[in-house]
Specification:
154 residues, SH3 type barrels, 6-stranded antiparallel β-sheet, two-stranded antiparallel ribbon, elongated
Length: 154
């Protein structure tokens, strides 16, 4: 007979990976401090939105992806997600997966930049939360009273 911990053990790596992926923070970073190889979010200026529409799509005001190159005029970004101002419902702009390749974005077209950083504190809190939830579930299942079956007589 396996215990609940034995059954949950096979899901532990997946749960830890999920908490690790969710523990990235994107603080505002000056464009001059962006480093190639990092995940970035770029918010475009009002003038860059229509200028980049042929490459990114209509109304795209935010792009996310891996920064490939930085030079004095542009940023080369391997785009993974775009956020468009089109079809906004209830002040929520949906993020769309992007199947395109690298896009050159002029530095003058970047209104705000955010660079992804791994957050050790959020990761520790996520792991503690997942571990605590698993322990609570196991404890509740282990200590649940057995259901007595009543015999019914005709």
């Amino acid at each position: 007979m396996t215990t609940i911990f034995g059954r949950l053990r096979r899901f532990a790596p997946a749960l830890l990976c999920l908490t690790g992926f969710a523990c990235m923070t994107y603080p505002v970073t000056p464009v001059n401090e962006l480093r190639p190889g990092n995940s970035v979010q770029l918010t475009l200026t009002d003038s860059a939105i229509p200028a980049l529409a042929p490459r990114l799509g209509p109304g795209v005001f935010r792009v996310q992806g891996k920064l490939q190159e930085v030079d004095s005029l542009a940023l080369l970004l391997q785009v993974s997600n775009t956020t468009s101002a089109r079809n906004i419902d209830y002040h929520f702009a949906p993020s769309m997966q992007w199947g395109g390749g690298a896009v050159s974005i002029p530095r003058t077209g970047v209104a705000a930049a955010r660079q992804g950083h791994f957050s050790l504190l959020r990761t520790a809190l996520g792991i503690a939360f997942v571990g605590g939830a698993a322990a609570l579930t196991a404890s509740l299942m282990h200590h649940a009273p057995a259901q007595a079956t009543r015999a019914t007589y005709p």
